[in-house]
Specification:
By secondary structure, this protein is mainly alpha-helical. The protein is 67% helix and 2% strand. Helix 1 packs across helix 14, helix 5 runs antiparallel to helix 10 and helix 5 crosses helix 11. The longest helix is centred in the C-terminal third of the chain and has 29 residues.
């Protein structure tokens, strides 16, 4: 195997592991007990994305010579395009909803849902807007059926007594805390004011007398989480579409810095919107003492996975490289099932894994026929 191929498969493995693990910190008991506002968590991700983007300028990029350039390895030059801001508009809200989805629906089903929908959205953009054609319409149809069937299976077989939530969130549901903390609607137990832990404790205490039942609250919370995962897949699935309109020298690895700048700007705008909505007291607590490590870890994993996936596609091509990277949904599923115990029972676990494999088969078919 040639060095470029070895490099491509190595970056594919890195991307798969990082993308499949970046949401794990969201489910850690020490983090789940804080009930961190999704925008606050996303801010840590954005900060690490901006900090690690500059590594793209020192990483080697392989050129195959088909575009008139000399074949071989080279470094990426610093480029900027405002299209990165448009990508940020897709990524940041989608990322906020991804955190909300994991918090409420669970890691296994949430990431499986948005990963599959991202592939479908990317496929639709290629067909409807960019004039790309499929090699075999029947195989593409089978791929779509596998994708849909696998998604339904993962959703059905991941539903347990707790609805895929962590024990900490189940306890909050039994206490009657309502999950209203989405993009621009602050919930009191997420907000700043006083120490981080006192805010959470006071929020739990104030809601302890609410009449919401635990089972109903858990089911509603899971449904909201699944809806958030769908939003991330449909909206966030267009993250890289703006790159198609960027200058040639600002595409691929040359797009990483522009993307990071755009993500930082959009995140800042969302904070300003929250401040304008309800003043300083409406701003979510960052829980810096407890969240700095887990938040930065999640952001670093996502950013490394993103850079590694770009390197993979550049060396192995869209069909092979992109398909391998989507195996991240299996990695996240294994975390959710076996570490966080989101799915219990051998039969349900086996059926979930089978559904995930069917979904992966659909992804491979769609990518190969693209």
């Amino acid at each position: 195997m040639s060095p470029p191929l070895l490099f491509g498969y190595a970056t594919a493995l890195i991307s798969t592991l990082c993308f499949g693990s970046f949401a794990v910190p969201v489910k850690l008991p020490s983090v789940a007990s804080l009930n961190v506002h999704p925008l606050a968590f996303q801010t840590y991700k954005t900060a690490m994305c901006a900090a690690t983007a500059w590594t793209s300028l020192v990483l080697p990029v392989y050129t195959d010579g088909r575009d008139g350039e000399r074949e071989g390895w080279r470094r990426t030059e610093l480029q900027y395009t405002p299209w990165g801001i448009v990508s940020g508009v897709f990524w940041v809200p989608g990322g906020v909803m991804a955190i909300y989805a994991v918090q409420n629906a669970g890691l296994a089903v949430a990431q499986g849902t948005w990963s599959s929908l991202i592939v479908a959205v990317s496929f639709a953009w290629g067909m409807a807007v960019f004039g790309e054609r499929v090699k075999n319409v029947y195989l593409a149809g089978v791929g779509v059926l596998c994708l849909v069937g696998g998604l339904v299976g993962m959703s059905v077989f991941s539903e347990g007594e707790g609805g895929g939530q962590s024990p900490e969130r189940d306890e909050k549901a039994e206490g009657g805390i309502n999950d209203k903390s989405v993009l621009l609607t602050p919930d009191p137990h997420f907000l700043a004011g006083g120490s981080d832990r006192s805010v959470v404790d006071s929020g739990m205490a104030s809601a302890s007398s609410a009449p919401t039942s635990g089972a109903a609250g858990g089911t509603t919370s899971r449904a909201k989480g699944l809806a958030a995962a769908v939003f991330n897949g449909l909206w966030g699935g267009s993250i890289m579409v703006p790159m198609h309109y960027a200058p040639d020298d600002a595409k691929g690895m040359g797009y990483v810095v522009s993307f990071a700048v755009g993500a930082a700007l959009v995140t800042s705008v969302l904070w300003l919107c929250l401040w304008a909505w309800g003043g300083r007291r409406s701003l979510p607590a960052m829980h810096t003492r407890d969240m700095l490590g887990p938040g930065c870890l999640a952001g670093a994993l996502w950013s490394v996975g993103n850079i590694a996936s770009m390197l993979t596609v550049q060396v192995l091509g869209e069909a092979v490289g992109y398909s391998i990277c989507q195996a991240s949904l299996l990695v996240s599923g294994l975390w959710g099932i076996f570490y966080f115990k989101e799915v219990t029972g051998i039969r349900k676990r086996a059926l979930w894994v089978a559904s995930a494999v069917v979904t992966m088969g659909g992804i491979v078919l769609l990518t190969a026929e693209h």
